[in-house]
What does this fold into?
Amino acid sequence: MNALEAQVNPLTTLTEEARLTLANLADAATDLTVPSIRLGVTGLARAGKTVFLTALVHNLVHGGRLPMFAAAAGHRMTGAQLQPQPDDAVPRFDYEAHVRALVKDRIWPESTRQVSELRLTIDYESASYFYRKLGPGRLHLDLIDYPGEWLLDLPLLGKDYATFSAEALRNARAATRTQIAGPFLKVLGGHDPEGQENEPAAQQLAACFKEYLAACRADAHALSMLPPGRFLMPGDLDGSPALTFAPLDIPADAPPARAGTLRAMMERRYEAYKTHVVRPFFRNHFARLDRQIVLVDVLHALNAGPHAVADLEVALSEVIGAFRPGRRSWLSSILTRRIDRILFAATKADHLHRTDHDRLEAILKRLVARAEDRARFKGAEVEVLALAAVRATREATVKHRGEELPAILGTPLPGERLNGDTYDGKSEIAMFPGDLPQDPESLFGEVESVSEDLRPSFQSAQSELQFLRFRPPELDTTAEGLTLSLPHIRLDRALEFLIGDRLA
It folds into this structure.
């Protein structure tokens, strides 16, 4: 039982664990004929979850170049086919539409807005002489896609309304957010928590709170700590009472809320949010995962500045705190599923020259250091990687003022701007995005708190870096007219870590 579970009401936790055990027993029964592995794919906004899933399936089904994926490189993987998914109540991941968007239209597919699932069945020959004699192997890979913002809701299960309010308002009043939160805080000041409950007041506060969260997530700020996650992705719950609440100013020593007050109304809806939104997600999807990849858009945070980087670090720590890591065993996989492998991946590595990829990995490793230590302590294997699930650029060397610089070539998305130029989505450009700092510590903390020897790199890192968003690549075709698989950077290494041992 992890820290999150220990904070939840013990009776509720025992009930949830009993339900999870029954669900795991049912999963184990279906695995007797063909084993399966449930891989969770998540990341905060614009981290590239949909692109990663689409590229993974496309390369496995179409035999893409995967030299570091042992089963494919050794020609032991004999095929991969999409199958009907096992969970009839979960929307199917729309792989075909996403492939069309990437390959035919050369646009990035729509972002993840709900839980979806896809089953891929892999046929393979074991590397073991003994198991190879038993016949060909088969593995169901169940891919579970869900918004990372929903993960930020899981810690709410261990927090009452007063705690949630105190944390939310402390964030809103922080120096980095006070201007963004100004309109919400002004409206908040006009409402007395001990006043009579009032539906128009609740709707006004909730609407202003949602606008504040949305503004925090905008490109200019790129902040990540934004619970409740469903406020930004309400789906069919939009307008429901469970999504119509906001934090209130509650004194630390305040007595329990009186019936009929605005505070009691907000508290009731907050608890309904946990009961009807957060807990079912934890029980039905998250707690049944075997392995997890967490995609992180480090470059997006770097573009926004040091405050966005610091906020991302806190968000990732909260996210990993909600995981159920542990060492895999035969019995545990039947009774209480644990995530035994976690991959943290810095996406959009194609926006940098390969000489900077190690530095990108070092920055991500620094961001997830606390979470990584916690997962390893619980017995899970952890890896950190820089990748591009779909490579949208090529590398080149350009001359600038007599100096040769490593550059990337690509077609910026329509409307992207750089040095006063706005691109039309048709013209390819060469650009030098800048170098990431050698020491990742130079990107953390306020400038005043950085040591003298690191201060120059800290101050220059933000000003010299510049990242554009590029269109997906135009794919080559074979002599027979077949489209080649989507190009990538280190997708094969990700596959080897996540599922390679199950194909050995």
Remarks:
- The mean pLDDT is 85.
- The first strand starts at residue 36 and ends at 43.
- The radius of gyration is 24 Å.
- Residues 262-284 form the longest helix (23 residues).
